Amino acid sequence: MPLFLIFGSMNIQSEVLDNPHLIHPLLVLGAGHFGQRAVNLLSKRVKGKVWVIDKDWQSLEQVTEPNVERVQTDAVEFLLSKAKSLPEETHIVPAVPFHLAYEFAKRTVRRTLATRSLPVPLDLKKALPYVWEGADGSFLVSYANFRCPDNCPEPLYCTVTGEKRDKPLFTLLRELRANGFRVYIIRSRQMAPGVGGYDLADLLRLCFALERGPGKWLVGTACKCHGVLSGLEIVERATR
Q: How far apart are CA 19 and CA 31, in angstroms?
């Protein structure tokens, strides 16, 4: 699920990055509508290398910005192969229809530990605003039950309803209490209106936490208004 989904700009102050340049490499994982929009808005600001990754070449062909390297491959496998060679400050825009941070962490941890996907406990719904259950047991969570404008600047007051967002969704998810689960949430930060992501270092810190803490986890990625939450169990491999 692309996490820079929805909401729109109405000349309201926001936390969109003021720095006109991104000095570190940029990975846009996914070349659909949201990935193409991210490349269009960010590629001219990036001083480092820019990649866009997708398994579908027809989607990659729609990316026509100069100085952007298009790679036809699995997004998670590409990220795994580059994680050790890229600077930790590398910017990542997750524009794929699945929980990128969760899949990256799961495949990373599997190298040394056994993992098992778990459904998010259904009783957590009552502690969250709007929730849609994914086929894999994940929760798609939002403060909105409508499609938001692409160029939302994440203001304090919703650009559609005018309602005040007192508590960012990433904070709400971090404060969840689920019996037997620990919680780790990556915050998705805006790089342009409606385009958010995080740094490679955020993914590496997630993996470090999971590797040092076998047990049940709720792993999430969220901006101020939208997020995804997935369940995972990590166990020590039996030794012979």
A: 25
Distance CA 125, CA 55 (A): 34
Q: What's the rounded Cα separation, in Å, for the pair 5 and 152?
A: 9
- How do strand 195-199 and strand 91-94 relate by DSSP bridges? antiparallel
DSSP string, 62-113: T---TT-EEEES-HHHHHHHHTTTS-TT-EEEE-SSS-HHHHHHHHHHTTTS
Contact indicator for 217, 230 with CB cutoff of 8 Å: no
Q: Per residue in 51-78, pLDDT tens?
A: 999 999 999 999 999 889 999 999 999 9
- Max CA-CA distance within the chain? 63
Helix, strand and coil content of the chain, in percent to the nearest 5, comes to 25, 30, 45
| Eight-state DSSP code of residue 48 | S
